[in-house]
Amino acid sequence: MKKSVPMESASAAIDAKITELGDWRGQTLAKVREIIRAADPEIFEEWKWAKVTSPGVPVWSRGGIICTGETYKSAVKMTFAKGASLKDPAGLFNSSLDGNVRRAIDIHEGETINEAALKELIRAAVALNLKSQNKPKTKAKAKAKTKPKPRRTAGKRR
Fold first, then answer.
1. pTM to 2 decimals?
2. Which of 13, 22, 25, 39 could be a cystine partner for 119, CB 3.0 to 4.6 Å?
3. Correct CATH for 7-135 of 3.90.180.10, 3.90.1150.200, 2.60.60.30, 3.30.1380.10
4. Cα separation of 69 and 50, whole Å?
5. pLDDT tens digit sequence for 43-93
């Protein structure tokens, strides 16, 4: 499993990404970050999935991944790890709608962000993560962790 960058370094990496972009995408990513922090101050920042072909992605977590903040030429994409399980009464999700787990919000140049609705969505994602974290393990999972029964020794069967 790949480790994420420590929070201080992750925050610095996100700052650097915003500065590096230097256009509407950097401003949008900064605004998204501000909204996430305002929604829940206990959310922490990570920088994950850095490799030779990609510098990595900002990730916001609490009790698990809440969302990522990817930047593309035409959009800033917020991908919610468990978005399919979240209610979205304001209809913010507009991308990755066919998946069973994730949902995303593509923010394009000139679009305004519904801050109140996004904060509620973020809080709902945190609540879902914390609820999942405290959920007792199912019988099947508990059983899988028990020692296997010893095998019979080979012998004649009668």
1. 0.79
2. 39
3. 3.90.1150.200
4. 14
5. 999 999 888 888 899 999 999 999 999 999 999 999 999 999 999 999 999
